[in-house]
Amino acid sequence: MLGEVAATLSLKAALDEPAWYALVVTGHLAAFALLAAVPGRGTPMGIAYGVRAAHAVVLTALGTAAPFGERLSLAALVGIVFVVTGVPCVETGSHRPVREREEAA
């Protein structure tokens, strides 16, 4: 996730200095390589991807403020609150209760 955030933030820097594109490519490759390891660990891919993407969006939005002077609107801040509170709800709701798992076994 941090690789993706660094890569995304580097896109803006790369507009002025193309050497930053190396970090763009490396960060995205690292993010997807780590995501590819998820299915073998038992976490559903949809949940892992959603959690990673949501965190990346929030961190990227917050990360553009200082170095690039971008301001977050009230709507963006409300959206960030929804993401931060909604992602744990989706992740928690994706787990079957213990009783259902024991009955299925």
Q: What structural category characterises the helix and strand content?
A: mainly alpha
- Write down the Rg: 17 Å
Number of domains: 1
Number of strands: 0
Termini distance? 34 Å
Largest sheet: none
Oligomer: single chain
Which outline best applies? flat
Kindly state the mean pLDDT as a whole number?
84
What is the N-to-C succession of helices and strands? HHHHHH
Beta fraction of the residues? under 5%
How many individual helices?
Answer: 6
Model regions low in confidence, pLDDT < 50 over at least 5 residues: none
Task: Give the helix level as a range of percent.
Answer: over 70%
SSE layout:
Elements: H1 2-14, H2 21-36, H3 45-63, H4 65-68, H5 74-93, H6 98-104
Structure commentary:
The protein is mostly helical. The protein is built from six helices and no strands. The chain has one domain (2-104). Helix 3 packs antiparallel against helix 5 (74-93). It is flat.
Write a compact overview of the structure shown.
By secondary structure, the chain is mainly alpha-helical.
